[in-house]
Amino acid sequence: MTHLERPNIRFEVDRPGLSVGMVILKDIKVGQSTSSFEMYEMETFKEIRSSMTLEEAKDDPIFRSYRDLYWTFGMDPTKLRVSSEAVLRRILKGLNLWRISDIVDIINLASAYHKIPIGLIDASKLKGNLVIRTASKGEVFQRIGGKTIVCRGREIVVADDEKIVCFGYATHDSERTMITKTSKRVLVLLYGAKGVSKPMMNEALRITLDMIDQWLDCKVSEPLIFDSES
Questions:
Q1: CATH architecture observed for domain 9-227
Q2: Phi, psi for residue 166 in degrees, rounded to 5
């Protein structure tokens, strides 16, 4: 186990416009969402549903940029949606989001609101730094919930020094690095694509941090943005 104060992120894929915003949450106390958060969530649902329809989501330029990215890796984005589109579509269908834990519930709501997918990693379970790369043929990934994915060798993934920690670009997080009640140090990763400008990423980070500040008890690092062209 390598305890890094702030893991580095490098890009081994050659697609333009990729970026990752990182925030570290320290001394977090993972619990259940409160009734006041659930009321806030319902108000946010109303705002989201008044601003967009399910039909309009199909042509949203942010989501389209992720779909275009996935196609270049041989991934069907109608079957493997980035997490932000998946949760937003659920809200637009009139459904509620799952109750998992306060941090996961907040992140799901934030990503649906600003449309940029977010991954969560228990930093204590990370092995070294992170890399955005292409999966190896036959590489095995264990997603949250226990389902195993055997990679074809084309997919975009996020990995540490040992294994994949996120399949796709925040489509499925890993069972190995998932957030649990014992998690104390958490990486929050916002995944940007070609259609996400730096101001858009900064605004998404601001919204996410505002929600974290309002609803979580933890210390928060300054955000840092990594990009594929630096």
A1: 3-Layer(bba) Sandwich (3.50)
A2: -150, 125
